[in-house]
Design brief:
The protein has ten helices and 14 strands. With about 325 residues, the protein is α/β, with parallel strands linked by helices. The chain has a single domain (about 1-315), classed as 3-Layer(aba) Sandwich (UDP-N-acetylmuramoyl-L-alanine:D-glutamate ligase). The protein has a ten-stranded mixed beta sheet with strand order 5-4-1-8-9-10-11-12-13-14, with helices on both faces. It has a four-stranded mixed beta sheet with strand order 3-2-6-7. α8 (about 250-265) packs antiparallel against α9 (about 270-290). The longest helix has 20 residues, at about 270-290. The model has no long low-confidence stretch (mean pLDDT about 95).
Length: about 325
């Protein structure tokens, strides 16, 4: 079982709107609705890849009820901690040019009792996990070190930790030395204060993070340009084929599912072949997601077509 901590649940409405006319009545030509947030999207991707995620999330109010029902419909195993606040709603408007505009409501706020229930559920689930994935931002009201505590507890059980969270709680969790950190280029620059314009720049920045926090792999997503992964021994560069994108939202989350799935298949070998396979599958998953109108959704035919077209190069690190 992969324990997925996805505190910040969301209900996703995706509207296909060929042309937005401000001040006019705009009629959409297509609608999809789904349970979302990084945790739900990651769990859906892991399900697709034949793995067994267990999502631990908050949900509250009418929207939270919709979220829970949609998780059931998608076959996502879950533990939902009820909260008094309403789960947020996210709306994505897609233009005919494939441009996505997001409208995101504020995250709900939890109280001390609800945070305690979440921790209790986490501790009950953790011993069954083969991997811990912490995805997305924490909700308002939890302790600043909540992600750090989750990662430290996993380390006590020798459970590998995948961290896909960068803001306040994610930064604090770096002190636990997660095994894999996934961030984007802007986040890498902000975290290190170093230049990230070239591959060598990014390698240098990742070396700094590894030395500071003892992280095995750092994976950088580069949007339509693919991704890079860095270990102490080498850097992997993976480039996707050109596609006609429809909806990029959720691509980073299903990308993460590709990394975790490959790691599980390798038995957490941490060698360069595993890093290469992980990045290849992750880039293919993220690219395939862009072809679907649904958020965090991959069609098997799309993945089969894209995976062999992902170009991968290996570069030995300078140190």
């Amino acid at each position: 079982m992969i324990l997925v901590v996805g505190q910040n649940s969301a209900w996703q409405n995706t509207y296909l709107l060929p042309d937005m006319l401000p001040g006019k009545v705009n009629r959409v030509t297509g609608v999809t609705r789904s349970a979302a947030g990084k945790g739900a999207n990651l769990s859906r991707g892991l399900n697709f890849l034949g793995k067994t995620p267990h999502l631990l999330a908050y949900a509250g109010g009418h929207i939270g009820g919709q979220f829970t029902v949609a998780c059931d419909r998608d076959g996502i195993r879950k533990t939902i901690v009820p909260i008094s606040s309403e789960t947020r709603m996210c709306t994505t408007v897609l233009s005919k040019a494939g441009i996505a505009t997001e409208i995101v409501e504020p995250a709900p706020e939890i109280n001390e009792r609800e945070a305690g229930e979440f921790l209790k559920a986490f501790l009950a689930l953790l011993p069954q996990a083969k991997c811990l994935a912490i995805a997305g931002t924490a909700v308002d009201g939890d302790t600043p070190d909540c992600y750090l505590q989750y990662a430290l507890r996993a380390k006590e059980h020798n459970i590998p930790v995948f961290l896909d969270s960068y803001r306040e709680h994610g930064k604090v969790a770096l002190a636990a030395g997660p095994d894999i950190l996934k961030i984007n280029n802007d986040e890498l620059a902000d975290l290190t204060g170093m230049p990230v314009d070239s591959r060598q720049d990014r390698e240098n920045a990742c070396t700094s993070i590894r030395e500071d926090f003892g992280i095995r792999w750092i994976i950088i997503t580069l949007g339509e340009n693919g991704a890079e992964g860095f270990s102490a021994a080498a850097g992997i560069v993976a480039s996707p084929p050109a596609i006609s994108a429809k909806n990029p939202i959720g691509s980073g989350d299903v990308f993460s599912s590709g990394v975790i799935s490959s790691m599980l298949d390798s038995g957490f070998s941490w060698d360069l072949d595993c890093l290469e396979q992980s990045i290849r599958l992750a880039v293919a998953m993220g690219t395939a997601n862009c072809i679907s109108l649904k958020t965090g959704h991959v069609e098997r035919a799309h993945l089969r077509s894209i995976l062999p077209k992902v170009e991968v190069q290996r570069h030995l690190t300078a140190r």
